[in-house]
Amino acid sequence: MALKWLKRFLGGLVVLAIVAALVWALRPQPVAVDLAILDRGPMEVTIDEEGIARIRDVFKVSAPITGRVERLPVDVGDVVVADRTVIAVIHPLQPSLLDVRTRSELQAAADAARAAVTLAEAQVMSAETNIRVKRADLERAKALASNATISVSAFEKITADVETAEAHLKEMEAARDLRRSELASAEARLIGPEAGRNSGESVSVFAPTDGTVLDLLSESEQVVLSGGALLEIGDPSNLEVVVHLLSSDAVVVPPEASARIDGWGGPEIAARLNRIDPAAYTKVSALGIEEQRVDAVFDIVDPHDQWQRLGHAFRVMVHIPTWRSDDALRLPLGALFRHGEAWHVFKVVDGAAVLAPVSLGHRNSRFAEVLEGLAPGDAVVLHPSDRVVAGVAVETRAME
User: Fold this and answer.
1) Contact, 72 vs 88, CB < 8 A?
2) What is the CATH number of the domain that holds 67?
3) 7 lies in a domain?
4) Is the dihedral of CA 326, 331, 334, 339 positive or negative?
5) Is 268 left (phi over 0), alpha (psi -120 to 50) or beta?
6) Residue 113 and residue 106 in contact, taking contact as beta carbons nearer than 8 Å
7) Could you tell me which of 40, 14, 9 has the C-alpha nearest to residue 375?
8) How confident is the model at residue 9 (pLDDT cuts 50, 70, 90)?
9) Over 90: is that where the pLDDT of 271 sits?
10) pLDDT at 131
11) Which structural domain range is residue 203 located in?
12) pTM higher than 0.90, yes or no?
């Protein structure tokens, strides 16, 4: 009998253990969550935008004349001195090639000009002969006039004939010189590229200012027109940063606002607002949305030694503070969610989640300022899942 009762007792214990295990397994388990504890501390709201570092004054040097520019004697990064460093040498253009018909036409024009010169020289010779005859007549008339053999009117006529002959000679000489110039012009039009590529004078272009060569816009030897771009020169130590702000952000930036610049691969740099352009422009974002943007220009205030590796057209990140508090009640943004028309959080009270509405002030990329609804030291659930509801038991997630 004792053995029978012992077996019943042990069987009852087993049944009780199984029932207890089932009850334990089926009871609601606390939801593992990440918690954040509210505290007071410094908080800052900034406008964060990409910016471009650029040299304040970039000089684009252009060709002063049309010609053939040699391969530029400078390279990117070379230091140049104003009015001393030669940055380009320009030669005259070579004559163009002549096709058969054009050369024949120009040759005929040259032959005609040569014949005109021959005619003009013959006319000069005729005028010289005529003036010698007239001068001889004048000498005889002078001898006769001294003896009163000829009349005064006859002597005056011979004198006038000499003057007319001298004027005619000058006219013929001028015509001869004109024909010779026309011949030279016609022969010059026959000159082709065979005359030589280095014939004629060249023009040296000097650096307009002290600085560094930033870009070669016409590196190799080529023909350039007057005003054609050759290269860019600037002072790398004279940088500014331009930021394309949304027009709605630009209006809240205070005058002479301070800014922090980072994201360029070096240390953080301090800057100060120089100006915000008075006119905005339309820019299409990466999502295809038209935005009104306005350029804000910042001066770098830190010493050049701290940002000497920052160069022209480098991409940077600019952080412009618009509000700051040294004693704000900070709530991580990951704890917030919309419930109805208001912001709410799950506050942890005695191990359970409690739905709590909150009134918010300023916000940045990490925190929101709490005005009402929470107090320092309160614990809130970060990134609550759909398992977290009002009244559910929660526990801190174990660190893996």
Assistant:
1) yes
2) 2.40.50.100
3) no
4) negative
5) beta
6) no
7) 40
8) low
9) yes
10) 85
11) 61-94+197-234
12) no
